[in-house]
Amino acid sequence: MRFCVGRMPGSAVLCLILLLTGLLSGCSSNELELGPLSETRLMLDTFCTITIFGTADESLLTDALDLCAWYETLFSKTIAGSDVWQINYSEGEPVTVSPHTAEVIRIGLEYGALTDGMFDITIGRLSVLWDFGGSAVVPREEDIVVARALVDYRKVSLDGSVVRLQSPEVRLDLGGIAKGYIADRLAEFIMDGGAKGAVIYLGGDVVVAGERPDGAPWRIAVRDPFGSGGELLGVVETGAAAVVTSGIYERKFEENDVIYHHILDPFTGMPVRSDVVGVTVIAENALIGDVLSTSALLLGSERAILLFENAPEFIGALLVLEDGERLKVGEIAFETL
């Protein structure tokens, strides 16, 4: 079974559906009676697909998708009234948030410290300024300087579920971590609901839970960061785990013959320049996979490997470098296509 991984909205979901059909041909009639159940919705600024095996309970699938939408109302920086929106517009006053939001912020702040500020959840002013989903133009240098000065994870205080911005102009953006947390919670919800297996696909985040109907390892395809049309680099085989792929190819634009991608360096305010162009991380949970994959692009290969080795939830990774070299770290079963 193969899943196209990476933020490739239409083509990725189509690939997912077609390959699920291929899996069905090897299932018994009893297994077919118990799924798979699958549905795709546009949420979290991407196409989200949940597929469940080993149950005929269609409400479990619907409830899981509704739960995903509910989490978006907590973590979105653009939905008025969300936890993040309330923090960003609190004028520095303390805000009591959901325990879910507090946990995501806690991990974000922890990795802010572990990466010396390269992974920073207060990147909001810069991400809005660059607006990769909208205007797609290089901001003015003076605007970048102003926004960059407002990026500092140390300006966020967290006491239980109470969050306070020490500078009212700071803006949180949980886009580099929230999808992983949501994918983990959806997997727990589905398996607790009685499913035998599940695939949660939220853009570049994939969580495979339980077992495949045929008992074989899950096979997840990885996008080639040098490909122009979503070509595949190879396939990762794994048991139940999170597989998160990130790359500088995901959101980008060209201006004056220069390509600008969406992974922003909080210290320069510009798209980061490192030797890593694509990374696939296998971890025990997708939240940590999210953080580690983004951090690898920010830190470069040498510092990323050190970070991986000290993350207890890390299992393995494949780094694709700018010169085409591929580095395997930890335990990862990767087959080149």
Model description:
The chain has an eight-stranded antiparallel β-sheet, sandwiched between helices. Residues 1-32 have low confidence and may be disordered. It folds into two domains: 4-71 and 197-336, ApbE-like domains (T-fold); 75-165, T-fold (Orthogonal Bundle). The protein has 337 residues and is α+β, with helices and mostly antiparallel strands. The longest helix has 18 residues, at 58-75. 34% of the residues lie in helices and 27% in strands. It is built from ten helices and 17 strands.
Brief descriptors of the model:
337 residues, alpha+beta, T-fold, eight-stranded antiparallel β-sheet, 17 strands, 34% helix, disordered N terminus
In short:
The protein is an alpha+beta fold and 337 residues long. The protein has helices at residues 9-24, 29-33, 58-75, 83-88, 99-114, 124-130, 141-148, 178-192, 286-299, 301-309, and strands at residues 4-5, 37-43, 46-53, 95-96, 156-159, 162-165, 197-202, 205-210, 218-223, 232-238, 241-247, 252-255, 258-261, 276-283, 314-321, 326-330, 333-336.
